[in-house]
Write a structure and sequence with these properties.
59% helix, single chain, globular, 5 helices, mainly alpha, 2 domains, 108 residues
Length: 108
């Protein structure tokens, strides 16, 4: 579960994608439930949550907000010297983490 992963890895922040519009009702339900579980687990552990728009993530990683999923995956593989290109869902998650690492400014 998300809670188990948070307990295992002990992150100091949670970054997630801002809510996006999807046309398929079933997909919206699944994404909403997953998002709710993640935000709930973070809130229980008093972890700050940072939300990023997909365009901002792509801008931070690729340098172009309208980059394709293929470009995101390829750029991340090159940047991090990965042996192969990541599946899109993994690239999205890694892109969010990298976007946060590159743009977060600690409060004084």
């Amino acid at each position: 579960s998300v809670a188990d992963l948070i307990d295992l890895w002990k992150p100091r922040h949670i970054s997630c994608e801002e809510t996006i519009y999807v046309q398929n009702f079933k997909t919206a339900q699944i994404m909403g439930a997953a998002r709710g579980a993640a935000l709930s687990a973070a809130a229980i552990r008093k972890l700050p949550v940072f939300e990023y728009a997909p365009l901002r993530v792509k801008q931070a990683v690729v340098g172009f907000g309208r980059a394709s999923k293929e470009q995101m995956s390829q750029t991340l593989a090159q940047m991090l010297q990965l042996p192969e290109v990541l599946p899109f869902d993994q690239a999205d998650a890694l892109g969010l983490a990298l976007c946060h690492a590159l743009t977060w400014i600690p409060e004084a």
